[in-house]
Amino acid sequence: MKFFLEVNPLKKRNFFDDPEFSLQAFKNALRIAATRQMGLLMVTQAYTGFVMSFYVLAFPTSVGSTNALPDPKSLVGIAGLMIGTGEVSGAIGWGLVNRWAKLWGRGIVIISSTFCHLAAFILLFLSIPDDAPFGKNTSAPTYIAPTETLVCITGILIGIGDSGFNTQIMGILGQLYPDDSTPAFALYKFSQSFTAAVGFFYSSVLTLPWQILIQTSTLLLGSASYLLVEYRLIDADTTYERI
User: pLDDT (tens digit, 9 = 90+) per residue, 73-121?
Assistant: First the structure.
């Protein structure tokens, strides 16, 4: 009976009223951050921050600055709506995928999300002028003509991929750190917020090709890091429920 009633002593104490508890929580976060698994996952988490800054600022700004698009200013709102549509449909879709793809684990979702984002970045590189992120109307030449359809497809792909990364990160953190979920998720939000701030800083300074290069590089690194953690667990015969 005592086993079932026993509560983690840290959970009995108030974060704001007990400085010792705050210090212990901080130490727990540092301890988790020093593990190899969290170190790899923080690379993936960092990518979610970079891509967040991209679809929140750089992508809509670029769409609104492209003169070749019909009524580009109104397309900014539509682009945001398409990202949201992709996020919702992606969250539902990835949940269904995980139900029948347990053999491959969460890696199949990460790989699919990676391809979604790669496709979106390629479409943007080909159809949006290089100087579009600067926020000034531009008629610079592009490899292919920008259209409303391409903008919508790109937005949906970004949303689907983003939901895939975020849901799988939360899933694997919950399984790896069931007793330290608070510091684990705090590290997740810290990594994401830090790189998002960096992304917001350079989004109006760098041309679109350079921004896409950063996105693509961190995307591939983040995907590889996640897959290393995921399949290392499987290879080590560590069992956990797929989400």
Answer: 999 999 999 999 999 999 898 878 777 766 667 889 999 999 999 999 9
What's the start-to-end Cα distance of the chain, in Å?
Answer: 31
Kindly list the domain boundaries of the chain, sorted by start residue. Answer: 36-235
Report d(CA 188, CA 173) in Å as an integer.
Answer: 9
> CA 117 from chain center: how many Å?
10
DSSP string, 136-153: S-B----SS---HHHHHH
Q: Is 240 helix (H, G, I), strand (E, B) or coil?
A: coil
Is residue 86 a contact partner of residue 55, using CB atoms and an 8 Å limit? Answer: no
List of residues 6+ apart from 218 with CB closer than 8 A: 43, 46, 47, 50, 51, 195
Q: Which CATH architecture has domain 36-235?
A: Up-down Bundle (1.20)
Asked if pLDDT for residue 196 goes beyond 50, the answer is yes
Please state, as a whole number, how many other Cβ atoms lie within 10 Å of the Cβ of residue 11.
8
Determine the 3-state secondary structure of 120 from DSSP. helix
